[in-house]
Amino acid sequence: MDESPLIKFRCENCGQRISVPQIYTGQKSKCPHCKNTVVIPPPTDREHSDIGLKSLLDPAMFDVPPKQTKEQEPPPVNQPGPLEKEVAPEPVLDAAAFDIPPEPAEPEKTAVDYFKKLEEPPPERKFPFLLDIFLYPLNVPGLAILGIVIGIPLIFQVLGKLLFLFMLVFPPAFVLLALLSAVSFVVGIALPFYFYWYLAECVRSSACGELRSPETIGTTPGTIGEMVWQTIKILLCLIFFFAPVLIYFFTATKANLLFMGETNERMAVIAAILNDKIFWLLLSYGIFFFPIGLLSVVMFDSIAGLNPILLIGSIFSTFLPYCGLILFFYAFGYLIVKINQFLGIVPFAPQFWAYMSLFITCYLLMIMAHFLGRFCWRYEEKLSWDV
Questions:
Q1: Tens of pLDDT along 252-297?
Q2: What range does the domain containing 379 cover?
Q3: DSSP code per residue over 160-228
Q4: How crowded is residue 213: how many other Cβ atoms within 10 Å of its Cβ?
Q5: Which of 165, 203, 249, 286 could form a disulfide with 373 if both were Cys (CB 3.0 to 4.6 A apart)?
Q6: pLDDT at 249 over 50
Q7: For residue range 308-336, what is the model confidence (pLDDT) as tens digits?
Q8: Do 346 and 280 contact (CB within 8 A), yes or no?
Q9: Is 160 within the bounds of a domain?
Q10: What is the pTM of this model?
Q11: Number of domains within the chain
Q12: Is 84 part of a structural domain of the chain?
């Protein structure tokens, strides 16, 4: 354990009391309770005098017993105090007389273990890189998230069909069917927000060196507002980079497509727009800046991560690796589109392939989030982000 004195202070966000070694004064970390960023304050005069580790010098180690003041001298043995004459001392139960050993006292919970955990080397991959990244969601937390996102809508659909059949026999069951439909509607809206929030957690945990999907039991948001705000930040990042090309596309085609009814003329106009250099220039802007912008927004947990000066400086310092990130990022996006197109035209069991398409899409999105976070972890010094 660290031998330096401890600084005790309270988190500005949740009020949790934290104990930290004095050597971490002025550094930033996360509160072990609420996970918000805190700055270790300098010790006060009172903390210097009252807080610290126990002295290693024990008077019992020396032959000379410690001096006692006159007030601390015990009364003579042959002269018991007045209370001892009237009340007999209570018997003391010795734990050694029992078979059960005494339980050791729990040490005070401090932030020392949290800081040491940050200093530990990250885990190493057991398999080659191109194989190991595909195994990223294959742990208990990752499979649990996939089961929640895909399994809950499936359960509601099965229950809805059973209640519908039951309603044909017992018409008052319509009330239960209506209630189930309302709950299913609310859950169907909340699940995408929850999944996008979890993708952001995948980016952050991968940026800390983790190789598998994170456990979120202690960090799951308590309100839907937090999940909604996380999703809004991701959507704002997407709009910030791809809105120019979409606006240009619809503006250029609106006048020509408004009154057209023939498919060949509509396709001819779209083909002309796709050959426009301005269209491809705006599209290239979105493709090039979106990954670093998304990473910045997630890591800073703020829209302020879209600062152009920050993004351009980060790309300049990691240009070649960032180009590789772009190729990987959009190769997986292209793969998701093609898989969904293929499963959408399968002639038999369309509902099964729809859920299979959702599973594959969520699986690949988790891998993309992992790769984005690993880029931040690998080039943390070049990015120079004080997150």
A1: 777 555 555 555 566 676 677 777 788 889 999 999 999 999 999 9
A2: 138-383
A3: HHHHHHHHHHSGGGHHHHHHHHHHHHHHHHHHHHHHHHHHHHHHHHHHTT--SPPP-TTT--SSHHHHH
A4: 25
A5: 203
A6: yes
A7: 999 999 999 999 999 999 999 899 989 99
A8: no
A9: yes
A10: 0.65
A11: 2
A12: no
